[in-house]
């Protein structure tokens, strides 16, 4: 399912690049075709799994990948967005948080083998038959503080825990925090593990080195991988959820 959705996202990007229409029915039909194609590629073990590209699946797919169709109105909670600055200001004042203690993180996908569409090789490859563009994909969690003087170590979520290229390599020495998930999505459990094992120690060390109180405010949007209600541990790190909007 994860591989199918990644391929579907790339197909949608290609449709938009060519200025071709993309609708709900077209996306669902393409999803069924890609799923059947993957079943054939993976052999008999995958034949038992069924997929109908239902409206429920499509709703979750749109939420996970922030899909906005051209014929759909932008869904924005304008009232919540208008109230949030004053709410955040009160939180900052009550907690006496300086810009150095206010952090924000967010996820982004990376097709790390895919050539830029503006490169000559990519344009030539799309114009003539041949091998298709690689679809290798991973997820990154990036973050920093509001002062801009401290960037968190990126969290990388990859489909494999021990890829061949990293045999004999210590993951602790990598410039990223390595985690694995078959669908390469960030999950609530991975996020919780990153928060307690990486975010809190890094922020505590940063605050200690700058003579700041051991507390921080982490701002999150309402992505499915972010717990909607969550008591942070240790209690010196708290979080606030921002209204999620789409451009």
Element order: H for helix, E for strand: HHHHEHEEEHEE
What oligomerization state is this entry in?
single chain
User: How would you sum up the major sheet?
Assistant: 6 strands, mixed
Helix/sheet category: alpha/beta
The geometry reads as globular
Helix content estimate: 25-40%
Tell me what the structure shows.
The structure is a single chain. This protein has helices at 2-17, 24-42, 55-65, 78-95, 120-127, 188-209, and strands at residues 102-110, 138-145, 155-158, 177-180, 216-220, 237-241. The protein has two domains: 2-65, Arc Repressor Mutant, subunit A (Orthogonal Bundle); 78-241, no CATH class. The longest helix has 22 residues, at 188-209. A six-stranded mixed β-sheet has the order 4-3-2-1-5-6, with helices on one face. It has 247 residues and is an alpha/beta fold. Mean pLDDT is 79; it is low at 121-127, 231-236 and 243-247. The protein has six helices and six strands, in the order H-H-H-H-E-H-E-E-E-H-E-E.
């Amino acid at each position: 399912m994860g591989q199918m959705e990644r391929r579907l996202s790339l197909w949608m990007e290609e449709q938009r690049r060519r200025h071709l229409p993309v609708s709900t029915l077209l996306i669902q039909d393409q999803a069924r075709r890609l799923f059947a194609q993957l079943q054939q590629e993976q052999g008999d073990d995958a034949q038992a799994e069924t997929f109908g590209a239902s409206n429920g699946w499509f709703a979750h797919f749109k939420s996970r990948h922030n899909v906005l169709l051209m014929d759909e109105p932008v869904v924005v909670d304008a009232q919540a967005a208008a109230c949030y600055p004053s709410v955040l200001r009160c939180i900052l004042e009550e907690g006496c948080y300086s810009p150095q203690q206010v952090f924000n993180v967010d996820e982004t996908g990376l097709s790390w083998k895919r050539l830029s569409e503006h490169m000559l090789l990519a344009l030539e490859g799309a114009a003539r038959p041949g091998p298709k563009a690689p679809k290798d994909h991973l997820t990154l969690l990036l973050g920093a503080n509001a002062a801009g003087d401290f960037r968190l170590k990126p969290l990388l979520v990859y489909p494999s825990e021990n890829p061949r290229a990293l045999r004999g390599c210590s993951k602790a020495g990598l410039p990223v925090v390595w985690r694995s998930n078959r669908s390469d999505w960030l999950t609530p459990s991975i996020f919780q593990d990153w928060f307690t094992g990486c975010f809190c120690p890094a922020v505590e060390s940063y605050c200690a080195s700058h003579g700041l109180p051991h507390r921080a405010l982490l701002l999150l949007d309402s992505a499915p991988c972010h717990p909607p209600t969550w008591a942070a541990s240790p209690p010196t790190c708290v979080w606030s959820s921002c209204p999620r909007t789409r451009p």
